[in-house]
Amino acid sequence: MLHVGINGFGTIGKRVADAVRVQPDMTVAGVAKRSPNFEATIADDRGYDLYAADGREPFDEADLATAGTVHDLIETSDVVVDTTPSGVGAANASLYAEHDTPAIFQGGEDPDVADVSFNARANYEKAVGADTARVVSCNTTGLSRLLAPLRESYGVEKSRVTLVRRGADPGQTGRGPINDTLPDPVEIPSHHGPDVQTIFPDLDIDTMGMKVPTTQMHTHSVNVTLESEPTTEEVTSLLADESRLFLIPETLGIDGAGKLKEYTRDAGRPRGDVWENCIWAESITVEGRDLYLFQAIHQEADVVPENIDAVRALSERTASAEKSIRRTDEALGVGRGLVEHDGSPQRVDSHADD
Ligand code: NAD
């Protein structure tokens, strides 16, 4: 059983902890937090041991028990997943090295924070036995999952992607825009293209970024010039075979991220999370060697299964990407639950006398 510590229990950290909890080969060693806010009470409720990142006093005052400091958590963990805000992970790197504990960082850090930038479908093997890995950002994860099978089956000559990005996560009340559509960043290419090249160094890719007033999901408008000329049906079938790509059937009537999130909530997904890239099936179009499609990426969720695979890769317990991905997906329900509903409320028999 792998003991996994989570340092930083916010948007990504709490999802990673819950995903660790359902894996057959992992357990949550504990979570480190700075403040006893609502997420600390959720950690307590889940039974995760709380460790203080910045001193135990605020937790004592809030009557929340702590099991120790972040140093104790790192020492007791086989692997630590650092899910602190961008930049804090890099500052924490020396802590993990000090304790000789393998560590996983997130996409908000610069690539040089870790030995390898990681995407399970594209380069799992590179992280096997490494001391550190960086799970690339939500957008880079979404693009890597899509480009990996296309490269393997047809070759990719050039990729052009416009990323229409959510302005904020639902909990980020201070971010925007709230009434605008921003080229962001204005410079071209946006940072996303070079980030995808940390996974595929030889890939020719140009990216343009925008920010819009939604908290739901990112949407990618994708054009890939392939090296061969498959049919639309062949590409559709290739993508449909990937467990972390969900092809939205036209019949569902899902016209955007709003209905997509409503669908996953109806289907009983925790927090309405969408771990898969969601590709509108009827958008998949091949003209000559040019492939076009639209995909939606749930920024809070798609990196979660990747973090689980990264834990297995660093710990060297599972040498093959295929095996780890299958294990993670089965335990979480990735690739299921969007079309196989299992979240309907269950009848609870009452034992009341009346
Ligand atoms: P977040 O702000 O929601 O959560 C970070 C948590 O870490 C907060 O609870 C914060 O209080 C805590 N924290 C701050 N400093 C700390 C410290 N020194 N020690 C321990 N905990 C500390 O951030 P997030 O959205 O979960 O992002 C975490 C990382 O994941 C970032 O690198 C981000 O770029 C990346 N990421 C975020 C998203 C997203 O859409 N939210 C998607 C993919 C990757």
UniProtKB/TrEMBL annotation:
Binding annotation for NAD(+): 11-12, 108, 166, 299
EC number: 1.2.1.59
Binding site for D-glyceraldehyde 3-phosphate: 137-139, 192-193
Chief place where the protein resides: cytoplasm
Cross-referenced SMART domains: Gp_dh_N
Gene Ontology molecular function: 4-hydroxy-tetrahydrodipicolinate reductase; glyceraldehyde-3-phosphate dehydrogenase (NAD+) (phosphorylating) activity; glyceraldehyde-3-phosphate dehydrogenase (NADP+) (phosphorylating) activity; NAD binding; NADP binding
UniProt keyword annotation of Metal-binding present: no
Taxon lineage: Archaea, Methanobacteriati, Methanobacteriota, Stenosarchaea group, Halobacteria
Alphabetic keyword roster: Cytoplasm, Glycolysis, NAD, NADP, Oxidoreductase
Classification via HAMAP family: G3P_dehdrog_arch
Location relative to the cell: Cytoplasm
Identification of the protein by name: Glyceraldehyde-3-phosphate dehydrogenase
GO biological process: glycolytic process; lysine biosynthetic process via diaminopimelate
Keyword Nucleotide-binding set for record: no
UniProt subunit comment: Homotetramer.
Domain Glyceraldehyde 3-phosphate dehydrogenase NAD(P) binding as annotated: residue spans: 2-138
Location of the active site: 138 (nucleophile)
Recorded catalytic activity of this chain's protein: D-glyceraldehyde 3-phosphate + phosphate + NADP(+) = (2R)-3-phospho-glyceroyl phosphate + NADPH + H(+); D-glyceraldehyde 3-phosphate + phosphate + NAD(+) = (2R)-3-phospho-glyceroyl phosphate + NADH + H(+)
Domain of life: Archaea
Family of this protein: Belongs to the glyceraldehyde-3-phosphate dehydrogenase family.
Enzyme class: oxidoreductase
Origin species: Haloarcula japonica (strain ATCC 49778 / DSM 6131 / JCM 7785 / NBRC 101032 / NCIMB 13157 / TR-1)
InterPro entries in UniProt: DapB_N, GlycerAld/Erythrose_P_DH, GlycerAld_3-P_DH_AS, GlycerAld_3-P_DH_cat, GlycerAld_3-P_DH_NAD(P)-bd, Glyceraldehyde-3-P_DH_2_arc, NAD(P)-bd_dom_sf
Encoding gene (name): gap
Pathway: Carbohydrate degradation; glycolysis; pyruvate from D-glyceraldehyde 3-phosphate: step 1/5
A GO-annotated cellular component: cytoplasm
